[in-house]
């Protein structure tokens, strides 16, 4: 995705004002972007796709703005000097039916309509359908949400509910603060007939689930497991890295859950079926808050670090909670690994089209399993905890992980990890001479 994100400035805060009207109905929106120029700017780009543009200002003065594919090219009346702070205000009409499709695990994304409102699934590049942004996984900024809803509907977004204000016509404006910087792909903004269910996690961590009215009772059994999942992951990865957590139940036919920061979206069907499958999904999205949300990927080619870790800990948890054994799951992945390499690229070499294929999930979890077999469980656990601690709140990539693993393990792991991450063929699994890779079929 070479066109994702833009240079020349750093976003300091997004403020999003959404005047929600009704399901599948366009509504007035304003995005205010506060930024600092990292070079002199006679013009700059924002990632912004679709929606009807109504006007752009820079520091309160009208600015020229033209579309170029997914780019909104803004030319201010006066250039912005290097180091200068500036504020961009983009007024537009948002379309809550706008989405895109991928032929991988993501499938339909962007605005995801529900019967009475919407949820947002922005990964990987759908945030630009929601608001103008610097839409790259490594670029984060705090977000303030101000969402106005009609009577009977609630709004939710990442982070903390700052307050609600009554507006004319019985409408309510909901204000949320993301509290911590957030990548555009992890933004959540949902409207619907919701019930807010509050509880506590480890150390008094606030947990707030957001559940459509008719699903509160039926989803309670699996939602109530969150404190247990938090405790289990903290024992392995250290303290939870955000100030609150919760599950947003998606009352729609979502293909996958999504780790939107501090408020994971989980499809209703995942919470109404088998417990083993439900817990796998819940633990997977929660794990992302350490690896993927707190430790962001430096570029999309590093996605294996996010999805591989989430799948590894999901499998590790399931091993002792009624699911398949980790060894059986990893052996099955090993057998298919050459085929996945052939079809979808090595773990750290995806194409845009194969970004969210199985190689980034089970195939990448297998790399972590191989590393554990190579260095031993104790050294592996130190690598993992050091990874999420050292890079907490930062972006990191494959080279960073290899260097850190080598440092913690006390040996250069480059010759071991490079073939696993980039090779055309799957290396031998340490300690498993009987494991064999299936032949590749064209």
TrEMBL record:
<dbReference type="GO" id="GO:0070006">
    <property type="term" value="F:metalloaminopeptidase activity"/>
</dbReference>
<keyword id="KW-0645">Protease</keyword>
<dbReference type="GO" id="GO:0005737">
    <property type="term" value="C:cytoplasm"/>
</dbReference>
<keyword id="KW-0378">Hydrolase</keyword>
<dbReference type="InterPro" id="IPR027268">
    <property type="entry name" value="Peptidase_M4/M1_CTD_sf"/>
</dbReference>
<keyword id="KW-0482">Metalloprotease</keyword>
<dbReference type="InterPro" id="IPR050344">
    <property type="entry name" value="Peptidase_M1_aminopeptidases"/>
</dbReference>
<keyword id="KW-0031">Aminopeptidase</keyword>
<protein>
    <recommendedName>
        <fullName>Aminopeptidase N</fullName>
        <ecNumber>3.4.11.2</ecNumber>
    </recommendedName>
</protein>
<dbReference type="GO" id="GO:0042277">
    <property type="term" value="F:peptide binding"/>
</dbReference>
<dbReference type="GO" id="GO:0005615">
    <property type="term" value="C:extracellular space"/>
</dbReference>
<dbReference type="InterPro" id="IPR042097">
    <property type="entry name" value="Aminopeptidase_N-like_N_sf"/>
</dbReference>
<dbReference type="GO" id="GO:0016020">
    <property type="term" value="C:membrane"/>
</dbReference>
<comment type="similarity">
    <text>Belongs to the peptidase M1 family.</text>
</comment>
<feature type="domain" description="Peptidase M1 membrane alanine aminopeptidase">
    <location>
        <begin position="228"/>
        <end position="420"/>
    </location>
</feature>
<dbReference type="GO" id="GO:0008270">
    <property type="term" value="F:zinc ion binding"/>
</dbReference>
<dbReference type="InterPro" id="IPR014782">
    <property type="entry name" value="Peptidase_M1_dom"/>
</dbReference>
<dbReference type="Pfam" id="PF01433">
    <property type="entry name" value="Peptidase_M1"/>
</dbReference>
<dbReference type="InterPro" id="IPR001930">
    <property type="entry name" value="Peptidase_M1"/>
</dbReference>
<dbReference type="GO" id="GO:0016285">
    <property type="term" value="F:alanyl aminopeptidase activity"/>
</dbReference>
<dbReference type="GO" id="GO:0006508">
    <property type="term" value="P:proteolysis"/>
</dbReference>
<keyword id="KW-0862">Zinc</keyword>
<dbReference type="GO" id="GO:0043171">
    <property type="term" value="P:peptide catabolic process"/>
</dbReference>
<keyword id="KW-0479">Metal-binding</keyword>
């Amino acid at each position: 995705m070479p066109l994702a994100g833009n240079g020349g400035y750093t976003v300091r805060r997004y403020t999003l004002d959404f005047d929600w009207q009704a399901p599948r109905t366009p509504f007035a929106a304003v995005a205010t972007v506060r930024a600092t120029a990292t070079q002199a700017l006679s013009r700059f780009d924002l990632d912004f796709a679709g929606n009807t543009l109504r006007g752009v200002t820079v520091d309160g003065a009208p600015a020229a703005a033209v579309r170029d594919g997914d780019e909104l090219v803004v030319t201010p009346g006066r250039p912005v000097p290097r180091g200068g702070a500036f504020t961009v205000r983009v007024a537009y009409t948002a379309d809550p039916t706008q989405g895109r499709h991928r032929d991988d695990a993501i499938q339909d994304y962007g605005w995801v309509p529900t019967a009475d409102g919407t949820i947002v699934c922005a990964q990987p590049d759908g945030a630009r359908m929601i608001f103008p942004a610097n839409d790259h996984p490594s670029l984060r900024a705090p977000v303030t949400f101000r969402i106005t809803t009609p009577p009977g509907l609630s709004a939710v977004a990442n982070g903390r509910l700052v307050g609600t204000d009554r507006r004319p016509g019985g409408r309510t404006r909901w204000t949320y603060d993301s509290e911590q910087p957030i990548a555009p792909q992890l933004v959540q903004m949902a409207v619907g007939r919701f019930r807010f269910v509050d509880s506590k996690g480890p150390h008094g961590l606030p947990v707030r689930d957001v559940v459509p009215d008719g699903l509160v009772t039926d989803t309670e059994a699996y939602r109530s497991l969150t404190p247990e999942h938090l405790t289990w992951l903290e024992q392995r990865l250290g303290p939870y890295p955000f100030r609150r957590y919760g599950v947003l139940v998606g009352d729609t036919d979502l293909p996958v859950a999504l780790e939107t920061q501090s408020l994971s979206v989980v499809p209703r069907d995942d919470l109404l079926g088998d417990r083993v499958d439900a817990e796998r999904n819940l633990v997977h999205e929660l794990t992302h808050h350490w690896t993927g949300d707190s430790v962001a990927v430096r570029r999309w080619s590093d996605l294996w670090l996010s999805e591989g870790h989430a799948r590894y800990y999901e499998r590790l948890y399931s091993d002792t909670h009624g699911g398949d054994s980790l060894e059986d799951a990893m052996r099955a992945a090993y057998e298919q690994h050459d085929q996945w390499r052939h079809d979808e690229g090595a773990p750290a070499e995806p194409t845009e089209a194969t970004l969210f294929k199985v190689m980034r999930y089970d195939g990448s979890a297998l790399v972590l399993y191989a590393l554990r077999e190579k260095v031993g469980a104790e050294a592996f656990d130190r690598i993992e905890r050091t990874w999420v601690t050292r890079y907490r709140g930062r972006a990191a990539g494959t080279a960073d992980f290899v260097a850190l693993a080598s440092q913690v393990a006390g040996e250069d792991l480059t010759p071991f990890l490079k073939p696993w991450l980039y090779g055309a063929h799957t290396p031998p699994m340490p300690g498993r001479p009987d494991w064999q890779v299936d032949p590749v079929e064209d």
